[in-house]
Amino acid sequence: MTNAATPIDPDDIPEDCRAVVTAICEVGRRLSRLIARGAMGQDLGVQVGRNSGGDGQKALDVMADEAFAAAARGAGVRYYGSEERETVTELDETGTLALAIDPLDGSSNIDVNVSIGTIFSIYPAAADGMTSLLRKASEQIAAGYIIYGPQTSLVITFGAGTRLYTLDPESQRFMLISARLRIPDKSPEYAINASNYRHWSAPVRAYIDDCLAGEDGPHSRNYNMRWIASLVAETHRILIRGGLFLYPADARPGYQRGRLRMVYESAPIAMLIEQAGGGATDGHTSILDQSARGLHDRTPLVFGSKEKVDRVTAYHDLPPAEASALFGQRGLFRA
Questions:
Q1: Which of 110, 144, 158, 238 is most buried, judged by most C-beta within 10 A?
Q2: What is the architecture, at CATH level 2, of domain 189-333?
Q3: Boundaries of every domain in the chain
Q4: H helices then E strands: how many in the chain?
Q5: Nearest residue to 74 via CA among 95, 100, 103
Q6: For domain 6-178, which CATH number applies: 2.102.10.10, 3.30.540.10, 3.30.360.10, 3.90.700.10?
Q7: What pLDDT digit, counting tens, does each position of 226-280 carry?
Q8: Treating both helix axes as pointing N-terminal to C-terminal, what angle do 15-37 and 59-72 enclose, rounded to 10 degrees?
Q9: Under a CB-based contact definition with an 8 Å cutoff, are residues 153 and 284 in contact?
Q10: Which residues are registered as beta bridge partners of 6?
Q11: Prediction pTM value
């Protein structure tokens, strides 16, 4: 596959996005080299503060945010919204685009050498920064992520399929690996943080109980559970191998609307997944049909192989009284 790979072609990137995607790739290259040095370089995992959502900021979070903001200035980006900033920043009043970004997703894994990444979303710029980004997720003109792992890869969509590029460590060029990723329809894997089981709603517990029942349960198959705690790593696995990811709302304070941010996490991941033939919802409704009310608004997120996402939705859509009776039998969901 390496021999057949070709460098990223600027002509494959829509003209209005070309400069900003090129800028994102350049910062991604620099971060990839920095991360690969690990403890031989700077102490990237040291906590330096907290962001607006209350999450701990690592040194690399701040460094990545500053690098992407600097690169986006002059690359056609007027408005820049980041997980690491309280509100939207105007970079260039002549820019025509708005960039939403999680500069360093999964930063809690920096010290343990687990794949981390950058997630981004591009919209046309509107009259102001908040209007530009707080719109329906279906209005994204591009979405993607860079994953820093055993390979550094760029996964991106412009609304006509999901593409996979991998960074050649020798040439430092992103090489096209797949022009049209498709999520496998069948997979025995699902990802959820099972330690929160007692806090989940009845439909989520019922779905997971039925998975745990294996081939004797209503799904009639055995499953493997995965949980990496890095959204880009979970997404990448599902794009390549199929399966299901669930980060539901739960009863804990601060988790009633889920934990992942709509604008720069859930919306771009949903666009990538749907362009690869999968599904992405909040458990009930397509993420792409929704919009956020604030830059850091959270949402539940369920995505992966479409049949699995639809099945989770079926568990949620039952009336409570009917659900209570059904969850004792699960007959409706028998494969």
A1: 238
A2: 3-Layer(aba) Sandwich (3.40)
A3: 6-178, 189-333
A4: 8, 18
A5: 95
A6: 3.30.540.10
A7: 999 999 999 999 999 999 999 999 999 999 999 999 999 999 999 999 999 999 9
A8: 150
A9: no
A10: 176
A11: 0.92
